[in-house]
Amino acid sequence: MKGDKEIIRALNKVLGQSLIAINQYFLHARIARHWGLESLNESFYKQSIAEMKWSDDLIARILLLGGLPNLQDYGKMFIAEDVPEMIDCNLRLEKQKFSIITDAITLCETQQDYVSRQLLVTLKEGNEEYQDWLETQEDLMKDVGIENYIQSQMNDD
Questions:
Q1: How far apart are CA 130 and CA 10, in angstroms?
Q2: For the stretch 47-56, what's the b/e string if a residue is b when 16 or more beta carbons lie within 10 angstroms of its beta carbon?
Q3: Is 52 annotated as belonging to a binding site?
Q4: What range(s) does the Ferritin-like diiron domain occupy (predicted)?
Q5: Please, what CATH class does the domain formed by 5-71+79-153 belong to?
Q6: CA distances from 12 to 47, 100, 122, 145 (A)
Q7: Which of 9, 113, 120, 128 is packed most tightly, with the most Cβ within 10 A?
């Protein structure tokens, strides 16, 4: 199948954001685990795996359209040095991804590629869900204080 070059480019741009997210969330997970924040580690790790699955779907779609998935064009990761910054960095990336995914969805609608559009809508929904979770964590930190929030993220062992 020969796909539209603009759509392939847009899918590759979304793929690039997802690849950044895999690495950023995985690193934040392992930093959190190192600090003994098992709950936060688990949440970041699960999101990293979700991004990996979405990247796999994007790669399959790009290949189906006759394109070449770009796994080399990484953008900047936002790496944190403390818990509030981890949440903030991940939220910044999710907002950046949201904009890129939304633009790609619009392009797919214009080009009438509804299969790619549906894939992107699924990614957008996952993006919105994770963004909501991150915003909830920010609210919790404000409401209970950073020390209590961090304590709540530790393992009970």
A1: 22
A2: bbebbeebbe
A3: yes
A4: 1-145
A5: mainly alpha
A6: 20, 11, 16, 40
A7: 120
86 is in an annotated binding site: no
Residue 32 CA to chain centroid, in angstroms? 17
User: Rounded distance, CA 43 to CA 97, Å?
Assistant: 19
Does 51 appear as a known binding residue? yes
Enter the tokens of residue 61: 């779609």
User: Quick one: tokens of 136?
Assistant: 């909830």
The DSSP call for residue 82 is: S
Question: Residue 71 has which token pair?
Answer: 């796994």
How far apart (Å, rounded) are the C-alpha atoms in residues 94 and 131? 6
Burial label, 101 (beta-carbon count in 10 A; 0-12, 13-18, 19+): buried
Sign of CA dihedral 21, 24, 30, 31: negative
Express each pLDDT in 48-90 by its tens digit.
999 999 999 999 999 999 999 999 877 889 999 999 999 999 9
Whole-structure pTM value: 0.92
**Length of the chain in terms of residues written:** 157
